[in-house]
Automatic annotation (TrEMBL):
Principal location listed in the UniProt entry: membrane
Biological source species: Brachybacterium sacelli
Subcellular location: Cell inner membrane
Pathway assigned in UniProt: Carbohydrate metabolism; tricarboxylic acid cycle
Protein's recorded name: Succinate dehydrogenase hydrophobic membrane anchor subunit
Main function: Membrane-anchoring subunit of succinate dehydrogenase (SDH).
Membrane topology: Multi-pass membrane protein
Transmembrane segments: 32-55, 75-95, 115-134
CDD domains linked to this entry: SQR_TypeA_SdhD_like (cd03500)
Cofactor(s) annotated in UniProt: heme
InterPro entries linked to this entry: SQR/QFR_C/D, Succ_DH_anchor, SuccDH_FuR_B_TM-su
Amino acid sequence: MSAQSAPSIPDPSTRYRRTGQRGINSEMLSWLFMRISGVLLVILVFGHLFVNLWLGEGVKGIDFAFVGGKWASPFWQVWDLLMLWLGLIHGGNGVRTIVNDYARNPKLRLTLKGLLYFAVVVTIVLGTLVIFTFDPCPVGAEPSLLPSFCEG
């Protein structure tokens, strides 16, 4: 009976290194983005809820004029833009992970991720346009269709 040596286990305090792997680890960056964007989203969403519901008149005070007044300020435009972008990219990244985990067929995975990326990009573009081009009192509009705070 020959004595075989047991395989050695690397020291757990040392960093694991794969041989031959170079470049950026996109999954690690994705994981890091999810943590950072999640924290930022919590701050942005609770700030949004605090200003809209606590400081104002609650839900009954949120109307077209309220949104128009908020979006007149670049600060609130950027705040809402950050919520939009981070929320959509964070959610899209989460769905991408689910597609990678559960879609076994490579063609199905590619199709689902293509549809996901398309939906996220279209929604980001449209949402960004709405935030920066919103005008509650457009010039030349029918006066009877304008809100009461617009000057006739």
